[in-house]
Amino acid sequence: MLSLQHGAKSRAFLSRLLIVVSPSPSSSSSSAYLDSNSYHVASFSSTDCNALFAASTDSNPLFAASTDLLVSSFKDWFKHGNKNELLDRIFAILDTRGNDDSASRRAADLALSQLGFRLSEAFVLEVLRYGKDVLSCLKFFDWAGRQPGFYHTRATFHAIFKILSKAKLMSLMLEFLDNYMNHRYLHRARFYDTLVMGYAVAGKLDVALHLFGKMRFQGLDLDSFAYHVLLNALVEEGYFDAVEVILKQIKMRGLENKITHSIRVKGYCKQNLLDKAEAFLRRLVSEGGELSGNVVSELVDALCKRNKFEKAGKLVEEFQELGVVPMDHAYGVWIRDLVQAGRLNGALEFLQSKKSSEGYVPEVFRYNVLISRLLRENRLDEVCDLLMEMKEGQISPDKVTMNAVLCFFCKAGMVDVALELYDSRSEFGLSPNCMAYNYLINTLCGDGSIDEAYRVLKNSIDQGYFPGKKTFSILADALCREGKLDKMKELVIVALEMNFRPSTSTYGKFISALCKAGRVEDGYLIQGELNRVNKVINKYAYFNLIHGFNKSNRGDIAARLLIEMQEKGHTPNRALFRAVIQCLCDMDDPEKQFFKFLEMQLSRHEPDCEIYTFFIDGAGHAKKPELAREVFEMMQRSGFEPHLSSNILMLQSYLKSERISDALNFFTDMRQRRKIGRKLYNAMIVGLSKVNRVDIALDFLKELRDNGVVPSTECYEVLIKQLCSSKRYDTAINLINDMEKVGRHRCKDDKSSGTSLLGMLIGAFSGCVKVSQHIESLEEVIERCFPLDVYTYNMLLRRLSIWEMDLACELFYRMCQKGYEPNRWTYDILVHGFFKCGRKAEAKRWAEEMFQKGFDPTERTKRFI
């Protein structure tokens, strides 16, 4: 399903593309019939499309039917561009990855022979040009050379040499040449010509020249074809002294032609002798010399590479006006160089100008260059125009075009179309490349189609592709987020088998997801593997592992992981220490476990107050005040005077265990030894309130007020909550009034304050009085104490959304009636609440309204949409 954000964009592009489904302006049918003489399907005029999409939505049957029509049209266009079924069958036979034993080779030989085609130089060259991969081309070349009645020529040898060279398989090419004399088809091709060409193309020019000299010593000579292969290789590698020698030989034998001139201009350009190249070119024109399109394009390309675009453009126009040479190749090079330099607008303007004035139609690979760059820059309107132009001009797409089309549909928000074309790839011989796979996987993940993305990934691996790190990370994040952990585990195993190392952050997210899913042992195993290869996971993964083992009551492993985490350079916070200590205290022999952990911490570095403080805090939360007291005294014996924080934590450890007498004695002891500040009083009041010793807490509050000190907001809040819980509302309101007198106000719209007075009051009432039954009463009580605002209503809405969404909606409308403007959080609460209670249709309706208001959902809500 297309996401809500992409719907409008996809409909806009679909509307435009349907206009060119057929070039016939007279057709107005919207049925998806196919014309047997054309690769187009039924046409839509712009009027038809505007009417069709006026009220269309992604779920509208018209939208679905139109999408099907578009898919059919592109499928048929792709089929039109892949008409050579014989060549596809040849390469299907040759594609035997993983089955390269002798039996498989014999079976492939037999299958090729049974196809019944006639071998010729032209046919072999056509097969090699069509080749899908180097290995298959080599297999066909070898098979052809072993067939009775066929012998490889210089042209076929040159073709296979170029394939090997382009693939940078020089060692394989040299091995091929070294074994050349052992082949059956050796003596039908000119022996030395073939070797000279082969070594020249392989870049072994010293060997090629040595063989050439040996030929001349024996009275043998190269033919025109081999001479020009050697000359071109010398120019490419910069052997310019040898270039002049070979040029002289070519002239002496009367072999000079337009290819010679083109290579000579290339040589001048390679030496940066552009003025000399231009003068040579103009001399050829004035003398009426034989010229090819390449001779102009070589100079145009050289000028562009040196950033002389103005001069290159003038040269193109000048030679077009002269009319002495075919300009299609020069036009193509000019467009390519403009695109590579980022001058896309210039390239597009030139193309349209030449198309209208001269009827120029670029070759398909020139269109591909333009489309690929436009895609990279997200200029989707121009991509759409070029695709429409190609379809209208019946230009057969190649594999690069098909991959670009997949990427376009992904970027245009039409991943459904891209996926259907991908699933139909066998019908028209599409072989997706890495870019197409990455776009598909990324877009499917963004669209929430995680299973489809994973399926595409598995297919890509079967085809020999593996996604880039960014795509891998996106898919891994999606799998972890959606809890598809078995798929994620399989993905990690495949990555490791292919020697692909995901980032440590990806591993960290996977470990965290495993822990959250209760599979902490699996996460621990992965963390161990990473330790083995010296990879360090992030601190959040450590946090999740430690919390996971705490939940399973394995405090010993949690403690070991916390120490390892510190050794890896991460700093645990107090809450993590507290959680580990609490778990250790719940195990057998808690005192032994507790002090073993403390000893390990103290042995890591010089003892300091913070470590002792962490353990006092942890023991207090574990309700082990005797352990806290022992650490407190150990700290003093080690020469550290307890500071305010450690005193507060020691006091709180007594209060949490409801050891009120010990807490009062400790407080009195400190009061006798020093002046007690506001923070200790606050800790005492809050601690007593939390264990429901409200009257004692109120006495301390009065004592603090009598001393002229203002208690903290937390003191008031916790006391008010306990008073409300005990239905002592009068006293609670008195405290609220006192709070107002001393200037303790809640922070307006402070979303970070989870313990605001308003929050406590709402929590108190909603805990004692069910909000869904008394929402108006609660609203009135709150309004007596505080001015109602959007923040207040949002808190009430969030509480209501837990139980009753209908009442939440009522409160929303009442809020609007009173003049309060809902904000992003208001809508997010409602969308999230409807999704949580399974009312998806209403959730989507509220989400649409949210988008229309210009608000984006929070991350926790996005995963539902």
Automatic annotation (TrEMBL):
Q: Where are the PPR repeats?
A: 188-222, 223-257, 292-326, 363-397, 398-432, 433-467, 468-502, 538-572, 608-642, 677-711, 823-857
User: Which of UniProt's keywords are assigned here?
Assistant: Repeat
Which first-to-last residue range defines the signal peptide? none
Give coiled-coil spans as residue ranges. Answer: none
State which residue ranges cross the membrane. Answer: none
Which PANTHER family does the protein's record reference?
OS06G0152500 PROTEIN (PTHR47933:SF32), PENTATRICOPEPTIDE REPEAT-CONTAINING PROTEIN 1, MITOCHONDRIAL (PTHR47933)
UniProt protein name: Pentacotripeptide-repeat region of PRORP domain-containing protein
Originating organism:
Morella rubra
